[in-house]
Amino acid sequence: MNNLKDKKILLIICGGVAAYKSLEVIRLLKKKGVIIKTIITKSGAKFVTPLSISSLSKSKVYQDLFDNENEAEMDHISLSRWADLILIAPATANTISKLANGNSDDLASTVALASNKKIFIAPAMNVRMWDHQSTKQNTAKLKTYNYKLIGPEIGDMACGEYGEGKMSEPIKIVDELENYFKSLKKNNRLKAIVTAGPTNEYIDPVRFITNKSSGKQGYEIAKSLSNKGFDTTLISGPTNLEINDNIRLIKVETAEEMFQITLKNLPADVAIFSAAVSDYKVKNIYKEKIKKQDNLNLELEKNVDILNYISNHNSLRPKLVIGFAAETKNLEKYATQKLVEKNCDWIVANDVSNKKIGFDSDFNEVSIFYKNNISEKLKYKSKFEISDEITEKIINHLN
Ligand code: CTP
């Protein structure tokens, strides 16, 4: 089964003796039916010519960031969006450093920085450069940014030295890319449940207790999972949002309904609990509308904690359980507490005291707390982009 057919790959060739191997990468990818576009850096063009690349790839080679002709045909943002995947081979120590530090002074680094796709890098450099502490730190950083490293390998180097730093062989690189697409395809066998929106806990037929929540982040996550092939069920409290037909949307009102529907839709491979579930419900709901009175005492009782219940029942627990925490202070403390108390694998937390993000906004800024005191911040961006990043992390985790 050829998993590369008709895939769109943007190959970035940097400067290094190993650049000649990228021609073989192009040849093998073309043989598999891949559609290739190539960027070559200034130093890359000293090792292989744009003419040999375009002859093999049967497409244009992009070189300059501020080239009128290129930008008119396909600007650097469109180029990064066009690709299903970006491959940087060979990746030099300089390019790795630029990517790790967010520099974008040429077309290659700008496209990589602007990309929302998976980026594979095949480093190639002298053994001392590869072993250098700064390169080690840069590659470690890139891994946390979701870059995937292929190689390098140990062997004789062009400079005469021996050690780790050789670019992986083209066949190995192509195999890695093929495996990546194969695992993506596997996603459509994976089942995801997302809870979203608020719940309404009725006091009487016309009044209820609720939480402030637009449901946008949960809906975006459901969309993103579905776009990446997951069989997705969205269990939503009352919202004004719409969702596409690929997603099984089940509308509920109360926490109890959300709980029952969630149970009914298990098992799942991943469950994302983004709903703002009301912690309390009214013990005895009035059957008739309550008339105005001087004192009204409502007796409340705790709602079931859906996340807590499911994550603490082994027979129900999905492989990956992700909780949310919206806090107005002590974000890290409360999020890490919830991570432990609710037995989550990850907690996605945001500070809702900031009016520009979170509630009702299309933008968000979140921190993800993992086990073992590890956390990372997804800086201010659209809820769509945040969701895509969370989905990528889910895919990496499950695969
Ligand atoms: N949650 C849930 N069921 C509940 C309450 C919360 O599934 N009855 C889930 C939310 O969907 C979220 C996580 O638990 O993923 C944290 O919710 P949050 O309201 O922040 O936490 P609480 O446990 O209610 O704590 P507190 O209100 O004291 O912050």
What does this structure look like?
By secondary structure, the protein is of the alpha/beta class. It has helices at 19-31, 50-57, 68-73, 76-82, 93-100, 107-114, 127-131, 133-144, 170-186, 216-227, 255-264, 306-311, 331-341, 383-398; strands spanning 8-13, 35-40, 61-62, 85-91, 118-123, 148-149, 153-156, 162-166, 191-196, 201-204, 207-209, 231-236, 248-251, 270-273, 280-282, 300-302, 320-327, 346-351, 363-369, 375-382. The strands form 5 sheets. Strands 13-12-9-14-17-18-19-20 form an 8-stranded mixed β-sheet, with helices on both faces. A 6-stranded parallel β-sheet has the order 3-2-1-4-5-6, with helices on both faces. The chain has a two-stranded antiparallel ribbon with strand order 7-8. A hairpin with a 5-residue loop joins strand 19 and strand 20 (375-382). 40% of the residues are buried. It binds cytidine-5'-triphosphate (CTP).
SSE diagram, text form:
Layout: E1 8-13, H1 19-31, E2 35-40, H2 50-57, E3 61-62, H3 68-73, H4 76-82, E4 85-91, H5 93-100, H6 107-114, E5 118-123, H7 127-131, H8 133-144, E6 148-149, E7 153-156, E8 162-166, H9 170-186, E9 191-196, E10 201-204, E11 207-209, H10 216-227, E12 231-236, E13 248-251, H11 255-264, E14 270-273, E15 280-282, E16 300-302, H12 306-311, E17 320-327, H13 331-341, E18 346-351, E19 363-369, E20 375-382, H14 383-398
Helix pairs in contact: 1-2, 1-9, 4-6, 5-8, 10-14
The protein binds cytidine-5'-triphosphate (CTP).
